Amino acid sequence: MARKQMVRPGGRSARVQEAVHGAVRELLEEVGREALTVPMVAQRAAVTPSTVYRRWGDLRELLSDVAVERLRPDDAPEDRGGLRADLEAWAEQFLEELSSPPGRAYLRDALLGDDDGANATRCSDYAADQVTLILDRARARSERPPPLEAAMDHLVSPLVYRILFRPTDLDAAHARRLVAELLDGPIGR
Amino acid sequence: MARKQMVRPGGRSARVQEAVHGAVRELLEEVGREALTVPMVAQRAAVTPSTVYRRWGDLRELLSDVAVERLRPDDAPEDRGGLRADLEAWAEQFLEELSSPPGRAYLRDALLGDDDGANATRCSDYAADQVTLILDRARARSERPPPLEAAMDHLVSPLVYRILFRPTDLDAAHARRLVAELLDGPIGR
Fold first, then answer.
1. Distance (Å, whole) CA A83 – CA A99
2. Nearest-5° angle of CA A177, CA B151, CA B117?
3. Where the record puts its DNA-binding region(s) (chains A, B) (predicted)?
Protein backbone atom coordinates (compact mmCIF):
# COMPACT_ATOMS: atom_id res chain seq x y z
CA MET A 1 0.00 0.00 0.00
CA ALA A 2 1.07 3.61 0.55
CA ARG A 3 3.88 2.49 2.82
CA LYS A 4 7.36 3.70 1.89
CA GLN A 5 9.94 1.13 0.92
CA MET A 6 13.05 1.27 3.06
CA VAL A 7 15.09 0.42 0.00
CA ARG A 8 15.36 2.52 -3.15
CA PRO A 9 13.86 0.44 -5.96
CA GLY A 10 16.32 -0.42 -8.69
CA GLY A 11 19.46 0.28 -6.63
CA ARG A 12 22.03 -2.34 -5.72
CA SER A 13 20.45 -2.65 -2.30
CA ALA A 14 17.08 -3.46 -3.87
CA ARG A 15 18.66 -6.03 -6.19
CA VAL A 16 20.34 -7.75 -3.23
CA GLN A 17 17.07 -7.78 -1.33
CA GLU A 18 15.22 -9.24 -4.27
CA ALA A 19 17.83 -11.96 -4.85
CA VAL A 20 18.02 -12.92 -1.17
CA HIS A 21 14.25 -12.91 -0.66
CA GLY A 22 13.84 -15.01 -3.80
CA ALA A 23 16.47 -17.47 -2.58
CA VAL A 24 14.70 -17.82 0.78
CA ARG A 25 11.33 -18.45 -0.86
CA GLU A 26 12.78 -21.07 -3.20
CA LEU A 27 14.71 -22.84 -0.47
CA LEU A 28 11.74 -22.85 1.91
CA GLU A 29 9.93 -24.83 -0.78
CA GLU A 30 12.86 -27.08 -1.58
CA VAL A 31 14.51 -27.91 1.74
CA GLY A 32 12.08 -26.55 4.34
CA ARG A 33 12.58 -24.18 7.20
CA GLU A 34 14.52 -26.47 9.53
CA ALA A 35 17.30 -27.16 7.02
CA LEU A 36 17.67 -23.55 5.87
CA THR A 37 20.98 -21.79 6.64
CA VAL A 38 22.38 -18.36 5.83
CA PRO A 39 25.28 -19.77 3.71
CA MET A 40 22.75 -21.78 1.69
CA VAL A 41 20.66 -18.66 1.04
CA ALA A 42 23.74 -16.61 0.18
CA GLN A 43 24.95 -19.19 -2.33
CA ARG A 44 21.56 -19.35 -4.06
CA ALA A 45 21.34 -15.54 -4.16
CA ALA A 46 24.92 -15.22 -5.38
CA VAL A 47 25.97 -12.93 -2.56
CA THR A 48 28.43 -13.51 0.27
CA PRO A 49 27.12 -14.75 3.63
CA SER A 50 28.55 -11.60 5.21
CA THR A 51 26.26 -9.51 2.99
CA VAL A 52 23.32 -11.36 4.49
CA TYR A 53 24.55 -11.10 8.07
CA ARG A 54 25.36 -7.41 7.68
CA ARG A 55 21.95 -6.57 6.36
CA TRP A 56 19.64 -8.93 8.24
CA GLY A 57 21.61 -9.89 11.36
CA ASP A 58 20.59 -13.53 11.42
CA LEU A 59 18.35 -16.11 9.78
CA ARG A 60 15.42 -15.33 12.06
CA GLU A 61 15.44 -11.66 11.05
CA LEU A 62 15.76 -12.61 7.41
CA LEU A 63 12.82 -15.03 7.60
CA SER A 64 10.82 -12.34 9.36
CA ASP A 65 11.63 -9.80 6.66
CA VAL A 66 10.65 -12.24 3.90
CA ALA A 67 7.43 -13.04 5.74
CA VAL A 68 6.40 -9.40 6.05
CA GLU A 69 7.05 -8.88 2.37
CA ARG A 70 4.84 -11.89 1.56
CA LEU A 71 2.09 -10.43 3.72
CA ARG A 72 2.06 -7.17 1.76
CA PRO A 73 -1.21 -6.97 -0.20
CA ASP A 74 -0.84 -6.95 -3.97
CA ASP A 75 -3.99 -5.02 -4.76
CA ALA A 76 -6.44 -2.56 -3.29
CA PRO A 77 -9.52 -4.26 -1.84
CA GLU A 78 -12.29 -4.99 -4.28
CA ASP A 79 -15.06 -2.38 -4.59
CA ARG A 80 -18.41 -4.14 -4.27
CA GLY A 81 -20.39 -0.94 -4.04
CA GLY A 82 -21.14 -0.86 -0.32
CA LEU A 83 -19.36 -0.83 3.04
CA ARG A 84 -20.74 -4.13 4.31
CA ALA A 85 -20.06 -6.01 1.08
CA ASP A 86 -16.54 -4.52 0.84
CA LEU A 87 -15.68 -5.47 4.42
CA GLU A 88 -17.11 -8.96 4.02
CA ALA A 89 -15.16 -9.59 0.82
CA TRP A 90 -11.96 -8.24 2.34
CA ALA A 91 -12.34 -10.21 5.58
CA GLU A 92 -13.07 -13.46 3.76
CA GLN A 93 -10.03 -13.06 1.53
CA PHE A 94 -7.78 -12.02 4.42
CA LEU A 95 -8.90 -15.06 6.37
CA GLU A 96 -8.41 -17.38 3.43
CA GLU A 97 -4.87 -16.17 2.80
CA LEU A 98 -3.68 -16.05 6.39
CA SER A 99 -5.32 -19.18 7.73
CA SER A 100 -3.57 -21.42 5.19
CA PRO A 101 -0.51 -23.22 6.59
CA PRO A 102 1.89 -20.91 4.70
CA GLY A 103 -0.10 -17.84 5.75
CA ARG A 104 0.03 -18.86 9.39
CA ALA A 105 3.77 -19.59 9.12
CA TYR A 106 4.38 -16.15 7.63
CA LEU A 107 2.42 -14.47 10.44
CA ARG A 108 4.49 -16.31 13.04
CA ASP A 109 7.75 -15.56 11.22
CA ALA A 110 6.85 -11.88 11.06
CA LEU A 111 6.59 -11.88 14.86
CA LEU A 112 9.66 -13.98 15.29
CA GLY A 113 12.59 -11.99 14.16
CA ASP A 114 11.23 -8.98 15.66
CA ASP A 115 12.49 -7.82 19.00
CA ASP A 116 11.47 -4.20 18.51
CA GLY A 117 8.08 -5.05 17.01
CA ALA A 118 8.80 -3.21 13.75
CA ASN A 119 7.96 -6.09 11.44
CA ALA A 120 4.77 -6.94 13.27
CA THR A 121 3.76 -3.29 13.04
CA ARG A 122 4.33 -3.39 9.28
CA CYS A 123 1.91 -6.34 9.02
CA SER A 124 -0.67 -4.48 11.01
CA ASP A 125 -0.18 -1.37 8.87
CA TYR A 126 -0.84 -3.39 5.72
CA ALA A 127 -4.19 -4.50 7.10
CA ALA A 128 -4.94 -0.98 8.37
CA ASP A 129 -4.15 0.52 4.95
CA GLN A 130 -6.55 -1.87 3.24
CA VAL A 131 -9.32 -1.24 5.74
CA THR A 132 -8.74 2.53 5.52
CA LEU A 133 -9.34 2.37 1.77
CA ILE A 134 -12.64 0.60 2.35
CA LEU A 135 -13.74 3.09 5.02
CA ASP A 136 -12.75 6.09 2.87
CA ARG A 137 -14.70 4.69 -0.04
CA ALA A 138 -17.74 4.28 2.22
CA ARG A 139 -17.48 7.90 3.36
CA ALA A 140 -17.28 8.99 -0.28
CA ARG A 141 -20.58 7.14 -0.83
CA SER A 142 -22.04 9.01 2.19
CA GLU A 143 -22.17 5.86 4.27
CA ARG A 144 -21.14 6.23 7.92
CA PRO A 145 -18.29 3.79 8.52
CA PRO A 146 -16.87 3.03 11.98
CA PRO A 147 -13.46 4.47 12.90
CA LEU A 148 -10.41 2.57 11.69
CA GLU A 149 -9.33 1.53 15.17
CA ALA A 150 -12.74 0.00 15.87
CA ALA A 151 -12.35 -2.07 12.71
CA MET A 152 -8.87 -3.10 13.83
CA ASP A 153 -10.21 -4.15 17.26
CA HIS A 154 -13.36 -5.94 16.21
CA LEU A 155 -12.64 -7.30 12.73
CA VAL A 156 -8.90 -7.59 12.09
CA SER A 157 -7.94 -8.57 15.66
CA PRO A 158 -10.34 -11.51 16.05
CA LEU A 159 -9.37 -12.87 12.63
CA VAL A 160 -5.64 -12.77 13.39
CA TYR A 161 -6.07 -13.95 16.99
CA ARG A 162 -8.12 -16.94 15.92
CA ILE A 163 -5.76 -17.83 13.07
CA LEU A 164 -2.85 -17.90 15.49
CA PHE A 165 -4.39 -19.07 18.76
CA ARG A 166 -7.86 -20.50 18.26
CA PRO A 167 -8.33 -21.87 14.74
CA THR A 168 -11.25 -24.21 15.39
CA ASP A 169 -14.55 -23.20 13.75
CA LEU A 170 -12.99 -20.23 12.00
CA ASP A 171 -14.65 -19.84 8.61
CA ALA A 172 -16.12 -17.33 6.17
CA ALA A 173 -19.37 -17.27 8.16
CA HIS A 174 -17.43 -16.19 11.24
CA ALA A 175 -15.73 -13.44 9.23
CA ARG A 176 -19.14 -12.16 8.06
CA ARG A 177 -20.50 -12.29 11.60
CA LEU A 178 -17.60 -10.10 12.76
CA VAL A 179 -18.48 -7.55 10.07
CA ALA A 180 -22.10 -7.57 11.26
CA GLU A 181 -21.03 -7.11 14.87
CA LEU A 182 -18.76 -4.22 13.89
CA LEU A 183 -21.44 -2.46 11.85
CA ASP A 184 -24.61 -3.33 13.76
CA GLY A 185 -23.63 -4.13 17.36
CA PRO A 186 -24.43 -4.84 20.11
CA ILE A 187 -22.22 -7.84 20.13
CA GLY A 188 -23.17 -11.36 20.90
CA ARG A 189 -26.68 -10.95 22.27
CA MET B 1 -7.60 -23.66 35.75
CA ALA B 2 -9.72 -26.67 34.98
CA ARG B 3 -7.28 -27.79 32.31
CA LYS B 4 -5.81 -31.27 32.71
CA GLN B 5 -2.09 -31.55 33.17
CA MET B 6 -0.46 -33.79 30.59
CA VAL B 7 1.93 -34.96 33.27
CA ARG B 8 0.96 -36.72 36.47
CA PRO B 9 1.98 -34.40 39.31
CA GLY B 10 4.61 -35.89 41.60
CA GLY B 11 5.79 -38.58 39.17
CA ARG B 12 9.29 -38.73 37.71
CA SER B 13 8.02 -37.12 34.55
CA ALA B 14 6.68 -34.16 36.52
CA ARG B 15 9.95 -33.81 38.41
CA VAL B 16 11.91 -33.76 35.15
CA GLN B 17 9.56 -31.15 33.72
CA GLU B 18 9.89 -28.99 36.80
CA ALA B 19 13.68 -29.22 36.83
CA VAL B 20 14.00 -28.48 33.11
CA HIS B 21 11.51 -25.62 33.14
CA GLY B 22 13.25 -24.14 36.17
CA ALA B 23 16.61 -24.41 34.42
CA VAL B 24 15.26 -22.63 31.34
CA ARG B 25 13.80 -19.80 33.40
CA GLU B 26 17.03 -19.32 35.34
CA LEU B 27 19.22 -19.43 32.25
CA LEU B 28 16.98 -17.02 30.33
CA GLU B 29 17.68 -14.55 33.12
CA GLU B 30 21.37 -15.32 33.34
CA VAL B 31 22.57 -15.78 29.76
CA GLY B 32 19.62 -14.69 27.62
CA ARG B 33 17.73 -16.42 24.89
CA GLU B 34 20.37 -16.23 22.17
CA ALA B 35 23.03 -18.02 24.19
CA LEU B 36 20.74 -20.76 25.51
CA THR B 37 21.45 -24.34 24.39
CA VAL B 38 19.89 -27.70 25.22
CA PRO B 39 23.12 -29.10 26.78
CA MET B 40 23.29 -26.02 29.02
CA VAL B 41 19.70 -26.54 30.15
CA ALA B 42 20.27 -30.26 30.70
CA GLN B 43 23.34 -29.65 32.83
CA ARG B 44 21.53 -27.11 35.02
CA ALA B 45 18.54 -29.44 35.40
CA ALA B 46 20.79 -32.44 36.11
CA VAL B 47 19.33 -34.54 33.33
CA THR B 48 20.94 -35.81 30.13
CA PRO B 49 20.54 -33.78 26.93
CA SER B 50 18.87 -36.81 25.36
CA THR B 51 16.15 -36.63 28.02
CA VAL B 52 15.43 -33.09 26.85
CA TYR B 53 15.51 -33.95 23.14
CA ARG B 54 13.31 -37.02 23.67
CA ARG B 55 10.68 -35.10 25.53
CA TRP B 56 10.71 -31.69 23.84
CA GLY B 57 12.22 -32.31 20.41
CA ASP B 58 14.30 -29.15 20.26
CA LEU B 59 15.03 -25.89 22.04
CA ARG B 60 12.22 -24.04 20.28
CA GLU B 61 9.63 -26.53 21.48
CA LEU B 62 11.08 -26.40 24.98
CA LEU B 63 10.97 -22.59 25.06
CA SER B 64 7.42 -22.73 23.79
CA ASP B 65 6.42 -25.20 26.50
CA VAL B 66 8.02 -23.05 29.21
CA ALA B 67 6.28 -19.97 27.80
CA VAL B 68 2.84 -21.58 27.89
CA GLU B 69 3.42 -22.66 31.47
CA ARG B 70 4.36 -19.09 32.38
CA LEU B 71 1.17 -17.83 30.76
CA ARG B 72 -0.99 -20.11 32.92
CA PRO B 73 -2.97 -17.93 35.34
CA ASP B 74 -2.18 -18.48 39.01
CA ASP B 75 -5.55 -17.45 40.38
CA ALA B 76 -9.19 -17.17 39.46
CA PRO B 77 -10.14 -13.64 38.36
CA GLU B 78 -11.04 -11.27 41.14
CA ASP B 79 -14.74 -10.96 42.03
CA ARG B 80 -15.66 -7.29 42.08
CA GLY B 81 -19.37 -7.92 42.36
CA GLY B 82 -20.48 -7.18 38.79
CA LEU B 83 -19.83 -8.29 35.22
CA ARG B 84 -18.44 -4.99 33.95
CA ALA B 85 -16.14 -4.48 36.91
CA ASP B 86 -14.92 -8.08 36.73
CA LEU B 87 -14.17 -7.86 33.01
CA GLU B 88 -12.44 -4.51 33.38
CA ALA B 89 -10.23 -5.74 36.21
CA TRP B 90 -9.38 -8.92 34.33
CA ALA B 91 -8.64 -7.12 31.06
CA GLU B 92 -6.44 -4.55 32.73
CA GLN B 93 -4.42 -7.22 34.52
CA PHE B 94 -4.16 -9.40 31.40
CA LEU B 95 -2.91 -6.41 29.43
CA GLU B 96 -0.43 -5.43 32.11
CA GLU B 97 1.06 -8.91 32.30
CA LEU B 98 1.23 -9.64 28.59
CA SER B 99 2.29 -6.25 27.29
CA SER B 100 5.47 -6.25 29.39
CA PRO B 101 8.60 -7.24 27.44
CA PRO B 102 8.71 -10.68 29.11
CA GLY B 103 4.97 -11.17 28.56
CA ARG B 104 5.28 -10.36 24.88
CA ALA B 105 8.31 -12.68 24.56
CA TYR B 106 6.33 -15.51 26.18
CA LEU B 107 3.41 -14.98 23.79
CA ARG B 108 5.74 -15.12 20.81
CA ASP B 109 7.57 -18.18 22.19
CA ALA B 110 4.27 -19.95 22.71
CA LEU B 111 3.52 -19.49 19.00
CA LEU B 112 7.02 -20.37 17.98
CA GLY B 113 7.60 -23.93 18.84
CA ASP B 114 4.25 -24.81 17.72
CA ASP B 115 3.70 -26.29 14.31
CA ASP B 116 0.41 -27.96 15.18
CA GLY B 117 -0.92 -24.99 17.10
CA ALA B 118 -1.34 -26.96 20.33
CA ASN B 119 0.61 -24.57 22.55
CA ALA B 120 -1.11 -21.51 21.16
CA THR B 121 -4.46 -23.20 21.78
CA ARG B 122 -3.44 -23.81 25.40
CA CYS B 123 -2.78 -20.07 25.81
CA SER B 124 -6.14 -19.24 24.36
CA ASP B 125 -7.81 -21.82 26.61
CA TYR B 126 -6.26 -20.20 29.67
CA ALA B 127 -7.83 -16.87 28.73
CA ALA B 128 -11.12 -18.56 27.83
CA ASP B 129 -11.21 -20.38 31.19
CA GLN B 130 -10.73 -17.12 33.07
CA VAL B 131 -13.39 -15.31 31.05
CA THR B 132 -15.78 -18.27 31.44
CA LEU B 133 -15.49 -17.97 35.22
CA ILE B 134 -16.41 -14.29 35.02
CA LEU B 135 -19.38 -14.94 32.71
CA ASP B 136 -20.64 -17.82 34.89
CA ARG B 137 -20.43 -15.63 37.95
CA ALA B 138 -22.45 -12.95 36.14
CA ARG B 139 -25.15 -15.47 35.22
CA ALA B 140 -25.28 -16.59 38.85
CA ARG B 141 -25.98 -12.93 39.75
CA SER B 142 -28.78 -12.89 37.13
CA GLU B 143 -26.82 -10.56 34.88
CA ARG B 144 -26.95 -11.34 31.14
CA PRO B 145 -23.38 -11.80 29.97
CA PRO B 146 -22.40 -12.13 26.31
CA PRO B 147 -21.39 -15.57 25.00
CA LEU B 148 -17.81 -16.65 25.60
CA GLU B 149 -16.85 -16.53 21.93
CA ALA B 150 -18.05 -12.93 21.64
CA ALA B 151 -15.78 -12.04 24.56
CA MET B 152 -12.91 -13.88 22.87
CA ASP B 153 -13.51 -11.96 19.62
CA HIS B 154 -14.08 -8.50 21.00
CA LEU B 155 -12.09 -8.34 24.24
CA VAL B 156 -9.33 -10.99 24.30
CA SER B 157 -8.51 -10.81 20.57
CA PRO B 158 -7.93 -7.06 20.33
CA LEU B 159 -5.79 -7.09 23.48
CA VAL B 160 -3.55 -9.89 22.19
CA TYR B 161 -3.49 -8.55 18.62
CA ARG B 162 -2.43 -5.10 19.78
CA ILE B 163 0.18 -6.45 22.18
CA LEU B 164 1.79 -8.42 19.37
CA PHE B 165 1.16 -6.28 16.29
CA ARG B 166 0.06 -2.78 17.21
CA PRO B 167 1.27 -1.76 20.65
CA THR B 168 1.03 2.02 20.28
CA ASP B 169 -1.64 3.71 22.45
CA LEU B 170 -2.57 0.45 24.14
CA ASP B 171 -3.43 1.20 27.76
CA ALA B 172 -5.90 0.46 30.55
CA ALA B 173 -8.36 2.97 29.08
CA HIS B 174 -8.36 1.02 25.82
CA ALA B 175 -9.00 -2.21 27.74
CA ARG B 176 -11.99 -0.61 29.48
CA ARG B 177 -13.31 0.73 26.18
CA LEU B 178 -13.22 -2.80 24.76
CA VAL B 179 -15.29 -4.01 27.71
CA ALA B 180 -17.81 -1.23 27.08
CA GLU B 181 -17.99 -2.10 23.38
CA LEU B 182 -18.51 -5.77 24.21
CA LEU B 183 -21.27 -5.07 26.73
CA ASP B 184 -22.97 -2.01 25.25
CA GLY B 185 -22.28 -2.00 21.51
CA PRO B 186 -22.71 -0.78 18.84
CA ILE B 187 -19.04 -0.37 18.29
CA GLY B 188 -17.19 2.76 17.42
CA ARG B 189 -20.04 5.13 16.61
1. 24
2. 85
3. 37-56
Same domain, A135 and A180: yes
Residues 6+ apart with CB under 8 A from B133: B76, B77
Closest A-chain CA to B179:
A187
- The minimal CB distance from B111 to the residues A108, A167, A188 is found for A108
Domain co-membership, B90 together with B115: yes
Q: Give the number of A-B residue pairs with CB atoms closer than 8 Å.
A: 129
Nearest C-alpha of chain B: how many angstroms from A184? 6
Residue A93: how many CB atoms within 10 A of its CB?
A: 16
Q: What is the pLDDT of residues B67-122, one digit of tens each?
A: 999 899 989 999 999 999 999 999 999 999 999 888 988 898 888 776 677 889 99
Q: Does A180 lie in the same domain as A145?
A: yes
* Domain with B53 in it: 12-57
Name the interface residues of B facing A (CB cutoff 8 Å).
Answer: 104, 108, 111-112, 117, 120-121, 123-124, 144, 146-147, 149-154, 156-158, 160-162, 164-167, 178, 181-189
Residue A106 lies in a domain: yes
A99 and A138 belong to one structural domain: yes
A80-129 pLDDT tens trace:
999 999 999 999 999 999 998 889 888 988 887 766 778 899 999 999 99
Q: Do the beta carbons of residue A104 and residue A164 sit within 8 Å?
A: yes
Residues A111 and A46 reside in one and the same domain: no
Spatial distance between the Cα atoms of A96 and A83, rounded to a whole number of angstroms? 20
The structural domain count of chain B equals: 2
Is the ipTM reported for this complex over the cut 0.90?
no
Specify if A66 maps to a domain. Answer: no
